[in-house]
Amino acid sequence: MHEKLLAHISRFVDLTHGEQQLLAASMEYRAIPKRKILLKPSQVCTSLYFVVSGSLRLYSMKSNGAEQILQFGLADWWICDYQSLENGTVSGYYIDAVDDAEVLVLDLRTRNELFDRIPMFERYFRLLMQRGYAAGIKRVSYFLTGSREEMYLQFVRLYPEFAHSVPQYMLASFLGMTPEFLSKIRGKKGSTPGGKPKIS
Amino acid sequence: MHEKLLAHISRFVDLTHGEQQLLAASMEYRAIPKRKILLKPSQVCTSLYFVVSGSLRLYSMKSNGAEQILQFGLADWWICDYQSLENGTVSGYYIDAVDDAEVLVLDLRTRNELFDRIPMFERYFRLLMQRGYAAGIKRVSYFLTGSREEMYLQFVRLYPEFAHSVPQYMLASFLGMTPEFLSKIRGKKGSTPGGKPKIS
DNA sequence: CGGAATCTTGAAAGTGTTCAAATCAAGTGG
DNA sequence: CCACTTGATTTGAACACTTTCAAGATTCCG
Lengths: 200, 200
Description:
The first copy, chain A, is α+β, with helices and mostly antiparallel strands and 200 residues long. The first copy, chain A, contains nine helices and eight strands.
């Protein structure tokens, strides 16, 4: 169950066998049924989730009651509200399961102990956070530079299977548009050229 | 010159006196004149800049030739293209000075040596990156949730002096709107109520 | 003073949203 | 297996927000 995590870590840093054991022993496996909520506003986030399979999402509630999905947590992703986690403040986000998922849970306190004992584990997180930071800047750049349609096409290019397995309204939310508009974008593509109506 | 950096670090982690000395000796002071370019596309980013005074910005060039500002580096900020830095790939961004600025330059190689020698320094960066990551998510949330006008008001609330010292077209770019539209937003405010025409 | 960059203003054109209704899909219980 | 209910997607018309383009006013700096 932990091989997937260890394999992921090994793409960034090297841990000794002992360190790997310690880490594996520090995380708890958990099966998350579809729609199960792992975090909600008014709670303080005290756990990090490593997604082994399935998918989670992090979202907020807009003033009009609509969900605003800010992040999907697919396989090999860590997901949590880092602001709440680090400051001990109340979260403003929800985290739940899009599909049935399997995760490894790492408690905040345990994480901090691991950081003290295994500097390379903290480096791994430094690299992840740095990457997330850089990706955030690039994401903002996409929002500001291109149209919603380009963003959609880009997303489909990057995550073709996921883009078609996730409910359309969730994808629309993540891309910052209404489900109606995404539907129109999709409609435009499928029927324009002599294209066959679509297979299956 | 380095006190500002050490003071900033001390808000996150504790360094011994010796570590502080080592760090200070590892960074080079540099005065950056207004408009001086520190990084441009086709270069690989190999330095991190800590802003002591003044302000830098990180931006890309849109297909229509307009600048898209993605980030301002104000006092106490670190700025660089982390993706280029870590992967050794060519950057897609520019970094230059909005105003005359003073920075401390940290070379990539030196940074990595410091990380090996001073685990708390790497923790400091882990916390910075984590914070930047969380802030990036919140920023996306602002873009998707509110109107440009709300974003502008929010920005002014957070950085009142900076918002009025930076050229308006740069602020517009950072907020993802045209300078014309920002001008209209500002016009609306100033003249709505019995408000005085504006002082100075 | 002169020139260049910046900011303002207005009309026309986009792009994406809202609202409402119709269609489609999927499960549930009988 | 069908009828029903609920949720998801599609479609269209009216609307709102933001951009584009073009001209004029302003400011800044040598």
